[in-house]
Every structure is written in C-alpha cells, then in structure tokens.
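Closing statement on the adenosine-5'-diphosphate sub-project.
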Amino acid sequence: MPIGEFDIIKKYFTRLGCGRGVQLGVGDDCALLSVPEGKQLAVSMDTLVAGVHFPKNSDPELIAERALRVNLSDLAAMGAEPLWFTLGLTLPDADPLWLNGFSQGLFNAADEFYCVLVGGDTTHGPLSITIQVHGAIDADHALLRSGANVGDLVLVTGTLGDAAAALAVIQGRLEVGEQGFHYLMQSFYRPKPQLHEGQLLAHIASAAIDISDGLIADLGHICEESLVGAIIDIDRLPLSGLMEKRVEPVQAVMWALSGGDDYQLCFTLPPQNLNKLEILIKQGKINATIVGEIVSGSGVTCLKDGKPVQISASGYNHFKS
Ligand code: ADP
Ligand code: MG
C-alpha cells in the first residue's frame, strides 16, 4: 500500500525535542514559536524545481543539503542567526529511498546550522522544494543592500569562482584530478552559508549581499539599492589554490566575476571600520579580501592595472577609445 501524506510527515519530517524557542513544532495546525527578546525576525524563501534548478535524477541527499544551505545564505547576508525553517514539498510519488535520502540531507544541514524544522506542507505533483527560513537579528542591525556609501571599501569573503569551475567539471568542460574533483563537488553541493561572518559584519559593514548570481551582478544590486557605483580591481579577486593551479587565468577571473552559486558574501565597509575587520581576520573569525571601492555614479566597473576593462562572455578587453 503506498505510504500516505501523514505517514510521510511522521516518518521523515518529525523529530522530537527541539529547543530554540519552539513551543510547538510539526504536527498541529500551526507551529508556536518565540522570537528571542530584542530581536527582529528575518524571513526568506526559495523554491527549487526539478528540471529547472537541478536535474530530476539528482541525489536527494544533496538536493536537500543544498536547498537548506542556499536559503541560510540569505540569512547570512542579512547578518541574522538561523532559528527555524518550514518545508513545502511537492512529490510525484512517495519513494521511500528518495524520502530517506532527502530527509537525511535536510537534517544534516539543519543540525549543522542549528535550524529547526517546524512545519510545512506536503503535496502531490511534479518534484519541487520550497524552504522558508527564519532567523533572528538585533533590532535595526540588519545588513541591507541599500546601506553602501561613496568611499566604502568593497570586500568578499572566501574565494570566488569555485562553483562555476564545479559546474564546468560536472559538464565535462574542465578536468581537475581526484582531489580537485572532491573539493569542487563539496563547494557546489554543500556551499557554506557565511553565517558567523554575517553576524560579525552586521556590526561593522554598511551593506551586504550573498553572491548567488556572480560578483558583478550581486554587487550591482547593492549599487542600485544604494544609489552608488563600484569599481573592482580584478587583480585582487581571491581565487582558490585549485583555480590558480588548474584554470587558465582569464577564465578564472571570468568565473570569479560572473560565475554564480558561490554563496560567499560581498559587503561594503566604511574605511574607519577597517581596523575592526582586520582584528576579526587576525583572530581567524572571518576570511575577507578587499576587491574594490564604492564610488559615485552607477553600475560596476572592472579595472585591470588601473584601467577599465570590458567584461563579455568570451573574456575581458580594455575599452577601445
Ligand atoms: P493542515 O491540513 O492543517 O494544513 P497538514 O496536513 O498540511 O495540516 O500538516 C500537518 C502538520 O505537518 C503541520 O504541522 C505541518 O506544518 C506539518 N507538515 C506538513 N508537511 C510537512 C513537511 N514537508 N515538513 C515538515 N512539516 C510538515
Ligand atoms: Mg497544510
């Protein structure tokens, strides 16, 4: 007999004992949750559709891991601390093998980042996964896209372009050896939401965004919302050892500028807070690199050797006058 909706919820998505301000979790008409005192609730949602956002036959454990991690990255970009999430799951059938893998991946990520599943909805139809995350942030300390000012430094956490390199490997366009393969698959399927970094930056940065569509595109959103422009020095882009060793330099820079899915943070920092950031970097609490500056005007301009370059699908060129 096929397993029904209520059995799926009980078997795969209900866990006893929660904490984190959860008075009532999965099972009733609503969850009952207490927001920590003095905090604001930060809420964000993403939907992943099979055949659009991931191949239909992807490993369910990896789909779940990635889905939650990508959602948590939005909380990181706001400077929020994860509390709870809800799951809207549409399934073509109730395949126990798939559900088992999916629930394992989901709870792996949930436990790693202290985020409790408190409810959801389960329906029948083409495979799709919607996650809504809830996080806490000190009232009025959220990192908005609109806070950048002329003269602020532009920085990014971690290294850029690895996810684009991973995609090239998956699609057979790049060969990186066994160790490189493992590194890239981890960074693609299990991106690390920069949660601690975001929470620290909430007290010193002026604006932030997580890099899901590529540095140029996402920094462009900060510029638009803050009514400013930005310059990026492409020689300062932080690249992983693998990118430096295995990827041709122009390609590496292109991926670092325009490749999506890295889920690092791009943030702007008033120069007077640079010493505070340097202390956090020395303490090993954050890994960040200055890549540019906020200027008056609009849009993102890339510089090489101090001169503007034009970025196109095939590479970058100095502007022709
Ligand atoms: P209702 O019909 O009252 O909306 P549901 O049958 O949709 O109730 O859900 C019953 C309970 O199971 C609710 O607490 C709901 O939040 C939870 N739930 C349903 N689907 C999921 C899911 N995929 N993951 C976690 N909780 C779920
Ligand atoms: Mg319902």
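Residues 121 surround magnesium ion (ligand 2) (CB under 6 Å). With this model delivered, the sub-project is considered complete and its resources will be redirected to Aim 3.
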